[in-house]
Every structure is written in C-alpha cells, then in structure tokens.
Amino acid sequence: MPTSPRPASPDPASPGPAPHLPLPAADRVRSPYTGWTRAHWEALADRLLDALVPYATPGFAQYRLPGRASWSGVVSDGLEGYARSFLLAAFRIGGARGDADPRLIERYAQGLTAGTDPASGEAWPRLTDCSQQMVEAASIAIALHETRPWIWDRLDGRVQQRVVDWFSGFVGARTWDNNWRLFQVVSEQFLASVGAPFSQADIDGGLDRIEDWYLGDGWYSDGDGRNFDYYNGWAMHLYPLLWSRMATAAGNEGHEGGEGPGQAGGDGGRGKVYRERLSQFLNSYAHFFGADGAPVHQGRSLTYRFASVAPVWMGALADCSPLAPGLTRRLASGTARHFVERGVPDERGLLSLGWYGPFLPSTQPYSGPASPYWASKGFLGLLLPADHAVWTERELPLPVEESDQYTALPAPGWLLHGTRHDGIVRLVNHGSDHHPHDGPVPPRDDPHYAKLGYSTATAPETAEHAWARAVDNHFALLTPSGTPSRRGRIHPLRCAGRVASSRQDAQLPDRDELFPIESTSVLHGPWEIRVHRVQAPAGVTVREGGHAVAGAVRPHVEHGPGWALTRTETGLTSAVVGLYGWDEEAGIAREVAANALGAHSATPYLLKSAHPGGESVHVTLVALSQDVIHPRALQESISCSVEEDSVRIRFPEGDTLSI
User: Fold this and answer.
1) pTM higher than 0.85
2) Residue 286 phi, psi dihedral angles, 5° rounding
3) Model confidence pLDDT, tens digit, residues 620-639
4) Residue 236 needs a FRET pair 20 to 30 A away by CA distance; which of 282, 345, 476, 552 works?
C-alpha cells in the first residue's frame, strides 16, 4: 500500500466539479482518494431525480426526455424514463427506510396509477413477446420490491390489480435469448411475491438457461457466442442475486395460482451459487478501473456509465464480496466522481446519450433519451445502511494505484494491463467479438468489440466514416482502394500470464477466400508487443493501428521511419513502433467527431506495402502512456529476429521474449 494516497483532486483531463451540481464538502479523512461519502451519492441521486420532473407527463407515468428516440417509439421511451428512474428512486427511498422526500414517493405511486389505467392518456404499452416493455418491467418489479412498505402496500387495491394485470403479460411469453431471460425471472418473482398467478416454469427456465452461458471464473457470455462486456456485471450477476433477494424475502408468502411451488421457501440454493460466482468475478473486477475512476471503454451500452459499479455494490449487499469495504467505496465513488467532473449529468441535470457529453455514434439504435438511466443500478449501494462498513471505513487504493498490474482472464480472452505511474488500465482483446456462435458473421464488426485493445483513457473510433477505415487497434489487409479486412469472428488460442493469442480469418471485400491471421500479444513493462503471423495474397498492403487518442483540440502528431506517435494536449501519448516486417512508411489517421472522448482524434499506424504473397510476420510495439515516448530510441534499443516459427525479442535491460 502506498505511504500516502493520491490527493482527491481532478486529473489534468478533468474540468473539475460541475458548478450546476452542488455537492457536500469532501471528506479527505474517510475518503482520501475521492473525497466522496454517502452524502455525495444521495446528493447526486436527488439531482438526477429532481431534474426529471419537468419532463413528466401529467400523471407521472412517463418521462419524455429530449433527445433521439429509440426504435421502440416515444411511448416506450416514456415508460423507460419512468421505470429506470423508479429504480433510482427505489434505492433512495429504500436506503432511507422510507424517510425520503414524500413528493418522490408520491410521484412514483401516482405513475403506477396512471401507467396502468387505459383511460389516463399515458398508459404503458402492454407486455408482448420480445418487447422493450419487458426490460422496463424488470426495473419496476425490483423498485416495487425494494419500496414495498412505502409504495406497493399503500396502493389502492384496484391499482394493485391493474399493476398485476400488466405484469401478467410476462407469464408464458417469449423473450430474447440473452440477459432478457432474467427480466422475466424477476418480474414473475414479483408476481409471486404479491400472491398473483405466475409461472414457476418461466422462472426456472430463465435461471437454467444462464447456466448454458457460464464459462467459469465469474464470467457469463450474454447469450450464445462470445459476448463479453459490462452486461456480465450489471445484468448476468445482478439480476440473479436480486431475484434471490426477492425470493427469500419474508414478504413472499401465500402464492396462489403459481404452477407448482412458489418461492416463499427461498431460492432453492441458487443464491449460494450466484454469490460464489459474483465473488469470483469481483476478484479481478477492480482491475478494470483506472486511477482516475474511468472504467475500461469496451462493449455496448456504455451510456449507462455508473452502472459499471453495480456488481461492486451487489457484492456488499449480498455479503459475498472479496473486496474490502474501503476498496468497494473507493472504486464506486471514483467512477461516479470521474463522470461528475466531466459534466455528467449536464447543466439540466440530465444524463445524455453518450459518454461524457452527447455522442450518438457510441450508442445503439435501441437506446432512447431515457436509456442512460440504467445508470441507476450504480446507486444500488444506497440500500446498504449508513452505518455499513462500505460507508464508514476508510478508502483503500485501487490495484493500479499500488503497483503495475498484469491480469489474465481466460474466459473472455482478455489481458488487463495497469501502470501505476499514470493510472491507465489497458484491455488486450483476444476473445470477445459479439458475433453469433456459429453461422454467418454479420456484415459489419462492432468497434466496441472488434478491436485488439481498449483502455480507461481512450475510446474506439465509432462514427460511421471512421469505422469504415477501421484504423485504431486493428490489424488489417487493405485492398488497392484502401478498404480494410474485418477481424470477424475471434478464435481464442491462449490467455495466461502476460500472453494472449487468437486467430481470425480475414476476408477482403473483393475476394471469396479467407486469409488466416494469428495474433499474439505479450505484455512487457508498460508496453504491449504484438506479433502477427499472416497468410496474405500478393499485392495487398498490411496495416497496424495503435490506440486512438482524442481531445477538444487536434492532437500533436509525429512519424518517422517505422514509427508513428500522437499526443493530446494533456500529454496522453499513443505510439506504434515497428520491430519487424514493416516498411519505413508510417502515418497518422486523423478524425473529427468520431470519438466519444473528444471532437478531434488521431491514431498512429504502420504499413507494409506490396505484400509478396504467402506467409509473413509483423511485430509491433504498442504504447499508451502519460509519459514521454521516444520511438526512435525504442527502435534502436530493442532487437527482434525471426527464425522459422519463432520470434525473439531482446529488450534494453537484457530480458528476452520468444513468441
């Protein structure tokens, strides 16, 4: 443990606390890393909830926020605003044991009345197979459970029956075959808890189905395939344990109408399994967060922001976390503080579709203006009483604040690489592609999954014009017109220690045949060494890109024989250095309005023109750092030789690698 913690002050890339979000004074004794306490979380929750009121329909059944509509339409989006913010309100009300603003309780009780009344003019769409309403119903079910004494139990009996009738659309219905199965589980468990008809087969079927997706070490795929992202924490672990919490609650009694035994007797032992799995997951989860509180920028639905800390709070709530209470709060508060200091929520108090500010290219078509309020899951810790150790014990440092970190995660095929001197965490991806398990690969890759690398300090280029060029963190074969091959389906080969490797079958748009590429990443000190073994047709160009860096102004760029570098005004530097198999030509790909972290972005890349055809080997040093990087010195001091199938690298200090 360091002798003294980092001061709780903004990093160079942070604009500092938002003036429109008044917060309590920092407590630098109890929270030396972030300054945050429970009072900060309550103040943030209250600001988010109060800011929604001007956008409510007259009966408070919908919150119709400004912004791009989702593909589900304005009424569904309005329901989403109610349901997701109700989850936040529930944690605030439940955490205060009902001693919350009575107007808050009344708003959400009134919303239930109007939302289930067909004559109100703001009724919710009924639940149908695979409808977006299923997602929102799960949030309402959890919120009703956590606020039962203050909302459900005080509702008029006729309103209760209308709520039950609405939820009953889940019974026997079909959901999408991924995390959506769990929406049905918790919603029907709510029906069971209030004595309404439900299907035990639906509940058991959903919980049984996720067993098919469990790969060990706390990792689920979100459905069939290799779909690894934050849904593992904020869905695949969260909902089963919230279900267990509902199933074992004292109020679950007398379930008339269920198909078979109700859940009043407990969770059948499933909860113990889910707690053990979450504990395994949390063993490595703290390694995903940088010293500035940023989560690694990988996967879909990143606009949920704070939700990334939901599994950390769940570990404490379910009493299964391997993390010390002071580390739990430091991680969660660091992430909340990271976003607050970068303008989240905005001056209206709203969460926008984006990362810091609005940025639609990093979102998905299913997201509407209220979708970001799944961030409510990140406030789960408010259910823990104020005298719980996570709120009272002194903050402890993150792993990356104590030492350099190298973490292998074989299930998703990832390496995590954290450096203490700059607090950056990098993710090396050799296992998550978000493609179907078998059958045809979709016509395009998702830049949130297809890249070789991600980090807490960078984001992939996601705008359409940049996606088509696919330079950043991508190894590609280029057609004569410059069109890159796709990474496609990733086939993991190895992930252990500081080494991970995978195979892909590259396809060029003008050819039917596939060209195998085997890629290996090795972590050494602050660097990643990439070795690519390629089968390529004659005449193509080979290209390797590093991390894209972004900011409010154009990044500084440099390039020379066999190397390229780009640096932001805050000193964040991305570089690629050719060690073997590259031409002297290198370059920089600049983009505008392509990156969630800033209007101007740039990516360094290497080239090998006029490939002779057949087998080739290409070795690259990839660097991302707040330190000064000297590419020419690295080229001169690191030697690389290739003999048949072996690549041998010798570093300045005398260490050698054989790959």
Assistant:
1) yes
2) -65, -20
3) 999 999 999 999 999 999 99
4) 345
Count the Cβ atoms, other than its own, within 10 Å of residue 42: 18
- Residues 278, 315 contacting (CB under 8 angstroms): yes
Q: Structure tokens of 52?
A: 């929604």
Distance CA 503, CA 489 (A): 9
Q: 44: closest CA among 382, 331, 385, 398?
A: 382
Using the structure block, give the residue that is written with the tokens 């044991």: 97
**Residue in the structure block whose two tokens are 């690489």:** 417
Structure tokens at 489: 């389906």
Pairing mode, strands 214-216 and 219-220: antiparallel
Q: 328 and 396 in contact (C-beta within 8 Å)?
A: no
Rounded distance between C-alpha atoms, residue 370 and residue 85, angstroms: 9
The terminus-to-terminus CA distance of the chain in angstroms comes to 34
Tell me the β-bridge partners of 408. 415
| pLDDT at residue 614, as a whole number | 95
152 vs 146: CA distance, rounded Å: 10
State residue 19's pLDDT score.
Answer: 64
Pairwise CA distance, residues 488 & 506, whole Å: 7
**Could you give the C-alpha distances from 267 to 9, 205, 207, 245, 247, in angstroms and in order?**
45, 14, 11, 8, 6
Which three-class secondary structure string do you get for 468-524?
HHCCCCCEEEECCCCCECCCCCCEEEEEECCEEEEEEEEECCCCCCEEEEEEEEEEE
**How many Å apart are CA 148 and CA 141, to the nearest integer?**
10
pLDDT tens-digit map of 406-420: 999 999 999 999 999
Give the C-alpha distances (Å, rounded to integers) separating 517 from 532, 557, 648.
7, 29, 19
Q: Is 79 helix (H, G, I), strand (E, B) or coil?
A: helix
Q: Mean of the pLDDT values across residues 277-294?
A: 98
